Amino acid sequence: MARTAEEAVAETAGVAVSGTAAPVVEAERLTLVYDTGDVPVTALQDIDLVIRRGEFVSLIGPSGCGKTTLMRAIADLEQPTAGRLTVHGGTPEQARLDRAYGYVFQAPALYPWRNVLRNVQLPLEIMGMAAAERRERAARSLATVGLEGFERKFPWQLSGGMQQRVSIARALGFEPDLLLMDEPFGALDEITRDNLNVHLLDLWNRTDLTVVFVTHSIPEAVFLSSKIVVMSPRPGRVLEVIDSDLPPQRDLDIRETTGFLRIAHEVRMALREGHSYD
Ligand code: ADP
Ligand code: MG
Q: What is the pLDDT, as a whole number, of residue 158?
């Protein structure tokens, strides 16, 4: 099949990102065993992975394969048992202390008695930022997710999709260059999810954010990602890393193109191989 000029450009851009940009996350034979006091649970085993600046990386795999554990290790919320893990070339602890990442959870976890602006400001308040600056930062990150004008609303006055956008704004408040998102749209209906996917992709295209995104959805992973990491059932290992050659600027219609369907097929095949270990 002949490549279009656009595809050729995207491919070159993709090579540039994956080939030369600085590593943001590097895992080498990363292993994490939960000591449950009963039978130890090996959540991650020998994970080798490099995530470079400006990449949008999705982690996909069956429930329990260690996706959340990997995100939490990057965020310094879990300690690896063996192997090496660096964030921005240093320890995850240093990255946490530097507030180098924002973390978005599956549920928006907003405080109902705080309005939108004050929810977004909360982590900045906790870190002791001056009132004027944190108000300005919060307003700016709300504008980034398209929620200008909603500052005085309370969470219960917003739809689920808008609440999740507030929690993305809250994660952006630190002005991180790494955004960790753990199934952020998993609880939303498909139409809202499509909408937020378009928003997120646009945000990623406008900034030089590096995004690590956990999902169960193959179309979501393929639509958003520059790189898709397919993980195996427990113990979580990396089965395959698929580089996307889709152009970075995408709209939802791309999901009907042969290029999109080919990558989705590759992901599906890799997941299926993983399941054959069962
Ligand atoms: P995923 O996010 O892919 O669904 P998780 O990272 O949450 O997977 O979990 C990976 C494995 O580790 C699962 O088998 C889970 O039961 C186990 N696990 C997760 N957290 C803990 C914990 N705190 N203590 C013991 N086992 C855990
Ligand atoms: Mg999880």
A: 95
If one residue of 59, 65, 74, 214 were mutated to test the ligand 1 pocket, choosing by the most ligand atoms within 8 A of its CB, it would be: 65
CB atoms within 10 A of CB 136: 13
pLDDT along the chain (278 residues), means of 10: 48 52 96 92 96 97 94 96 97 94 89 96 92 94 91 95 93 92 90 90 93 95 98 93 95 96 97 70
Q: Identify the structural domains of the chain with CATH numbers, from first to last.
A: 5-100+179-275 (3.40.50.300), 110-175 (no CATH)
Protein residue with its CA nearest to atom 27 in ligand 1: 34
pTM: 0.89
Ligand 1, from 33, 36, 41, 60: best to mutate by most atoms within 8 Å of Cβ?
41
Residue 18 has a pLDDT of 53
User: Tell me, what's the pLDDT at 19?
Assistant: 64
What span, in angstroms and rounded, lies between the C-alpha atoms of 262 and 247? 14
Q: How far apart are CA 149 and CA 145, in angstroms?
A: 12
Please answer whether residues 159 and 147 qualify as being in contact, where contact means their C-beta atoms are separated by less than 8 angstroms. no
The token pair that represents 102 in the structure block? 């924002």
